[in-house]
Each structure stands twice: as C-alpha cells, then as structure tokens.
Amino acid sequence: MNISYPLKSYLLAFAILILLFTQNKPGFSQENPEKMEWFKDAKLGIFIHWGIYSVNGIDESWSFFNDYISYDDYMKQLSGFTAANYDPEKWAKLIQSSGAKYAVLTAKHHDGVALWDTQASDLSVVKKTPAGKDLVGPLMNALEKEGIKKGIYFSVLDWSHPDYDRNTRETFRYKDDPVRFQKFVDFNFKQLEELSTQYDPDLYWFDGDWEHSPEEWKSAELKAKLLSYNNNLIINSRLGPGFGDYATPEQGVPVTRPASEYWELCMTMNDSWGYQGNDHKYKTPNELLRIFVDCLHMGGNLLLDFGPKPDGTIPEEAENILEEFGRWTTKHKSAIYETQAGIPDGHIYAPTTLSPDKTILYIYLDYKVNESLAIKGLKNKIQRVWVVGNGTKLQSREVGKMYWSAVPGMKYIDIPDNVYDKDITVLAVLLDGPVDLYGDMGQVIESN
C-alpha cells in the first residue's frame, strides 16, 4: 500500500499518542466504573494485619523466608495465638468512629495460616491454634453493621503449601512442575470461593503476585470467577497488569499523583504491619493526618494499618491514633469525603482539594501563616471564605491586579490565631464558578 508522507506522519503521531496514553494508564481495568464511586469517595480505609506472627512480634512471613528464623520455629507461634480478647464489634466501632469507610483484614498472609475455617487445608487458626474459631466472619458482620465496606487481604503465594514451588529466598521446594503448580492454583481458587461465598467482600486486596506471571496465577480466570460472585467487587492492582481496579503504592508517600485514576497509599502507624511489641516508632496522629491530606490533595485514599496483639486487643497507641483521626475527620468531613484532587502545586503553599463541582477550594494548613495566606494565579472572584468545622467567616482581598493585564492579582486571606485547629486547619473558599487558574509566565505592558 502506498501511503503519502503527510498521512504517514499523522499515523505515526497518532500511534505515539496511543503509546503515551497506555503508558500513563498502566494496566488498570474498570469495566464497571460505577462500582468505583464508593471507593473514590471513601478516602480513608483501615488495614488490619493479624496473624500468628504477633505472638513473637516478628515480621509476618518474611522472617522465615529471609532465614531470620527457621520455619519450624516460626510455626511454633501457632500455640500462642489465642484471640481470647477479640472483640470485633469494638474493632468495627473504632474503625467507624475514625472516619474510615472501609477496612481490610489479612485473611491469609504469605505464611499460609488462614483466619477462617478453610476446608481446603488444615492450616488455619481454627484447627491449629487455641483461638479455635473463625476470626474473619465476626469482623465482616460487625463492619457491615457499622456501614463499613468489607475488604479481605489474600496472599496468592503460600510459602507453607506443599504444592507451592518456593520455600525461602535461597531454597526452592521444587521447580518447573506445572502439573503440581496447577494443583496449588486450584487450592487458591477453592479458598477464594470460600471467602467469597461465606463473607461476600466488597474488595479483595491481593498480594504476593511477584513470584509468578498472571498466566501462571490464572489471573484472568480468577477475576472472572470472583466477579461471578459479586459483579461490583473491587480488586487491587496485585494480580498482574490489567486485572486490578486501583493502584497500591506502599509506605512511601507519592510526590506526584499516581497514573491510575483510582489509587490508595497503604501505610503503617509505626514501622511494622503486624504487632511487634518492640516497635515503638509510632508516627504521631498529626504526622499521619498530614500524610492523609497529601493523599486527598492528589485524589487518592489512605489505607492506614495497625496490628492487633495475639489475644485480639488493639495496641493503645493505635487506638489513640484512630481516636485522633476521628476527632479531625468528624470536624472536617465536608472537606474530606466526595472531594476531588486539588489545584496544581505552586498556587498555594498548602495541599488543596476541590468540591465535586469545583466551585469550593479547600485549603489544608498544618502551620500558622505570617499575617495572611496568599493564593497566586486564581482568576475567580472569591465570594466567601470560612473555617471548616466552626463556620468562622474570614476576610479576603485581591492585591496587584492591573486593569490592562490578564494576570490575576494576589488573593490574600487573613487568618486570626483563634481559628487554628491543633493539627490541620481547613479553609473553604467559595468561588464565583468552577476554579479557573492562570498558569502562564506573566505579561509586560504594551498599551496603557
């Protein structure tokens, strides 16, 4: 076929645009975007890492994988996992009062120990620990009663299963046996069928996919099977590219917004996912709230993690953090839920979000300003400014607007000392229409 040079150029440019688009939207699928509405609006979730690793307070699963402890010694923790003071109703009420809209429980970590009465193997807290009962169902029921969306964490790898092909970082149990690995995949499908039919989760938080390809995990078949139980099910990004609904950056706070339309930062309260009695490096509530606000500013969620003790009690430090979150989210709920990502950095020295119609600009201040807060490049007129949570009206003014220039003046908001929140103060700025920003390099006078 003879294609003219201009047409070739257009086709090449179009191909490059398609490539760039696909690279910036890496492998996330929302065939049913309506199901993502609650997740987008939820903003805050609670992650719960609970398992036998809490008995000795050691790294969950990784401690034997990395040969810090023998596998047999790791498994001795089964005898100390009691769940004697497990109070799922208390957990759910604390989660609800924190302002979280969903919670995710580790039903099975990489060590293979199930927190429910799985019939696919004998390795569960029901059969092997003094707890002797299902721990997943009671929490799922309690969350549902509190109006909290139910999430289940599930490791697709299982370093305890005899048909899984890896034991530790240096030692392989077996290699290159597809028939045997298929038996393991069938086991995974069976356990996920149990979780899906017994607890009807709203969300699956998968982990451990890095050791095999999506084809080996049968990710396409697994996703189809899970959606057959619940067509509104949300799945995270860890079944391989193209099978998840949202991105899951971990621990490190993103500096720029992740490429996925929907995303969630998972973050520990201290330095450990599960309970470790020697880890006293808890972040302060203020530090965690500032991380939460960073997520809001970039249009994402925070999944905040704590690890219960082996008897089921929640560490005092974790309870305090959740209570402090509850104080702040209750006061500022209008500036949290259903908001969208804020305006680009550089216009205000603070994180921001916008109302659904983009006519209210929310500004989050974790510091006291010197005299007044400045906003640059805002074309809109400010109709009103108030302090979220107490309604105090604040004065605003524009300085330096030249009649001959398209460049807006500086907007200033005066903030008295008595309106500051002890953690983060939130201002609501009502605009005369959807936010309109100037982003060019300024002007020089050409006619006056």
Notes on the structure:
This protein is an alpha/beta fold. The chain has two domains: 33-335, Glycosidases (TIM Barrel); 352-431, Golgi alpha-mannosidase II (Immunoglobulin-like), CATH 2.60.40.1180. The protein is 29% helix and 17% strand. Strands 5-4-3-2-1-7-6 form a seven-stranded parallel β-sheet. A six-stranded antiparallel β-sheet has the order 8-9-10-16-12-13. It has a three-stranded antiparallel β-sheet with strand order 11-15-14, with no helix packed on it. Residues 1-26 have low confidence and may be disordered.
Question: Which tags fit this structure?
Answer:
about 15% strand, six-stranded antiparallel sheet, about 450 residues, alpha/beta, alpha-L-fucosidase, 2 domains, Immunoglobulin-like, single chain, 16 strands
The secondary-structure class comes to: alpha/beta
Q: On the 0-100 scale, what is the average pLDDT?
A: 91
Topology-level CATH name of the largest domain: TIM Barrel
- What's the architecture of the largest domain, going by CATH? Alpha-Beta Barrel
Radius of gyration: 25 Å
Largest sheet: 7 strands, parallel
* Number of domains as seen in the coordinates: 2
Briefly, what CATH class of the largest domain? Alpha Beta
Instruction: Report the β-strand fraction as a percent range.
Output: 15-25%
| Low-pLDDT stretches | 1-26
Order of helices and strands: HHEHHHHEHHEHEHHEEHEHEEEEEEEEE
Q: Strands, helices and their partners?
A:
Blueprint (H helix, E strand, L loop, with lengths): L4 H20 L12 H6 L1 E5 L4 H4 L5 H4 L5 H5 L12 H10 L4 E7 L16 H4 L7 H10 L3 E7 L22 H22 L3 E5 L6 H4 L1 H11 L4 E2 L28 E5 L16 H13 L3 E6 L9 H16 L8 E2 L10 E3 L5 E6 L6 E4 L6 E6 L5 E2 L1 E4 L10 E5 L10 E7 L17
Parallel strand pairs: 1-2, 1-7, 2-3, 3-4, 4-5, 6-7
Antiparallel strand pairs: 8-9, 9-10, 10-16, 11-15, 12-13, 12-16, 14-15
